[in-house]
Design brief:
The chain is an alpha+beta fold. The longest helix has 27 residues. It is an enzyme of class 3 (hydrolase). This is protein-serine/threonine phosphatase. Its EC number is 3.1.3.16.
Length: 523
């Protein structure tokens, strides 16, 4: 394993924008904190004193990202706080770092206007719910434990993340309580939307999960007014594998609760609803701030981002995606023992997806050309995305001039902000999950990604599979262009976008088995 700064390290490895790794220290409350023999987790952190409250379904993870786009300085959204304060705190490419788990949204000036009003309107319709929302909202900046039994109730978390071109990546882990959150935000037309997501989405999710727990404990049944009627997609198990029980993909309508506690079997639906509400919150806040600045910065109305977020807790993976980033599950099958099958846990929200294309056409019957030259209104291949206000609101399109403005924006929105969400129960057959921005899948199919990771893990028990995927992508991109890898990486960011996109990868190893693992950071 090459160490940081090694003269022998490949150029493309030394140029990685982000590389981090983490391995769980224990597999359950009965196992003492013992460092595995041969552990060589470079530039990373192990928790030596934790005793998890429940067994986690993941053992380690690694992340890597490589930039291709040159990005401009951050705008004045949030008075610059997103770029100047939040991201550097998250940007720890050498390791995970221990941080207080209390959300810190209150340091952003926008909370006094858009966010707080949105939280109270989305968070509850009864006076008591609004009082709780106000109390919790005001307490989110305090470094204290929120009084709740939720699994997010922890004083400290391990956090890592960073930026690669217009991509943003973050991972938050509580080994104490056995959960992991990962987010990949693939920005386009600028970095502002991805910056905003990196600074707010996780904390929004914390807020709504705390609110859910509060409603469950304090007022059984009262949360029905805010959850009732929301449709979510629940992926209970893999539909084509008889080794998984209850295999089905179904639309589940959240049940009514009147005078009883939330049943445990319905908790997956509740968590998914919290993920959806957190993203809707972030979208509303971002669009509000774009409206405040669009007269001076009309380019902001075209800024957007894809969203890929997973929450792994206990034996469930909760997935949320908006756009064309992917989460791929590698699982073994009964029919072919030892052979891993790639299962895509996300949808692809582009016009190349026939169902997405048909939806855009069906939603705009009076528009003769909702899709032009394979793009929504001739501008964007994505059919669902965060931000990109000029394809959602006429007044945002109106601030653009000349060829930048969309002609005949008859019936917006043309790009949607409702995500695909699902949950999957992790089985003994599930080996790992690969999260990637679309830059990864420009070069590799789902099956190729799973095969590359599987072979690498088998042959390199102390290696970093995320970094390996990025290195393989560089080699393939260079080969396609007729360059050596070194020649390709010597091309400056911006010009290199001709040969590959920004690429971000996270690999999460599932199961409770200890695995000797390592991660490197090259700056």
């Amino acid at each position: 394993m090459m160490t940081e700064g090694s003269d022998d390290a490949p150029v493309y490895s030394r140029e990685l924008s982000v590389s981090f790794g983490y391995q769980c220290n224990v597999t359950g409350p009965s196992i003492s904190s013992i460092e595995p023999e041969g552990f060589d987790f470079l530039n990373s952190t192990m928790i030596q004193d934790s005793c998890m409250k429940m067994s986690s379904s993941f053992s380690c993870l690694s992340g890597a990202a490589l930039s291709a786009n040159a990005t401009l300085a951050n705008t004045n959204l949030c008075n610059g706080l997103i770029g100047e304060e939040i991201l550097p705190n998250l940007d720890s490419p050498k390791s995970f770092r221990r941080m207080a788990s209390s959300p810190s949204l209150s340091r952003l000036d926008f909370t006094s206007s858009s966010s707080y009003s949105s939280f109270t309107s989305l968070g509850g319709s009864t006076p008591k719910e609004k009082d709780f929302a106000e109390t919790l909202w005001k307490s989110m900046s305090a470094p204290t434990r929120t009084e709740s039994s939720t699994f997010l109730n922890t004083m400290e978390v391990q956090m890592a993340g960073g930026a690669a071109g217009e991509d943003r990546v973050q991972a938050v882990c509580s080994e104490e309580n056995g959960w992991l959150f990962c987010g990949i935000y693939d920005g386009f037309n600028g970095r502002d939307a991805a910056d905003f997501l990196a600074g707010t989405l996780y904390e929004n999710i914390c807020f709504y999960l705390h609110m859910l727990e509060w409603n469950k404990k304090k007022q059984p049944g009262s949360f029905k007014s805010t959850l009732e009627g929301e449709n979510v997609t629940l992926h209970i198990a893999l539909p084509d594998d008889p080794g998984h029980s209850n295999s089905e993909m179904e639309q589940a309508k959240l049940p009514n609760y009147v005078d009883e506690e939330f049943p445990h079997e319905n908790y997956s639906s509740d968590i998914i609803s919290c993920l959806n509400r957190a993203l809707a919150q972030a979208e509303g806040d971002f669009m509000y701030m774009v409206e405040q600045e669009m007269e001076d910065r009309p380019d902001l109305v075209s800024v957007g981002s894809c969203v890929l977020a997973i929450l792994l807790y206990g034996d469930h993976i909760y997935v949320q995606n908006l756009g064309d980033s992917r989460a791929i599950l590698a699982t073994s099958t009964i029919q072919e023992e030892g052979v891993l099958k790639a299962i895509q846990l996300t949808e692809t929200h582009t016009v190349d997806n026939e169902s997405e294309c048909n939806k855009v056409l069906a939603d705009h019957p009076d528009d003769p050309s909702p899709i032009i030259y394979g793009r929504v209104k001739g501008k964007l291949k994505l059919t669902r995305a965060f931000g990109v206000g000029y394809l959602k609101k006429s007044k945002m399109n109106d601030v653009l001039m000349g060829i930048l403005q969309v002609r005949n924006l008859c019936s917006p929105p043309y790009v949607y902000n409702h995500p695909f969400t699902m949950s999957h129960r992790v089985s003994d057959k599930d080996q790992f999950v690969v999260l990637g921005s679309d830059g990864l899948f420009d070069f590799f199919s789902n099956d190729e990604v799973v095969k590359l990771v599987h072979l690498f893990i088998q042959n390199n028990p102390s290696g970093d599979p995320a970094k390996h995927l990025v290195e393989q992508l560089v080699e393939r991109a260079a080969d396609n262009a007729g360059f050596s890898s070194e020649d390709l990486m010597n091309i400056p960011a911006g010009r290199r976008r001709k040969y590959h996109d920004d690429v971000t990868v996270i690999v999460v190893i599932l199961g409770n088995k200890q695995r000797t693992s390592a991660a490197s950071a090259y700056l």
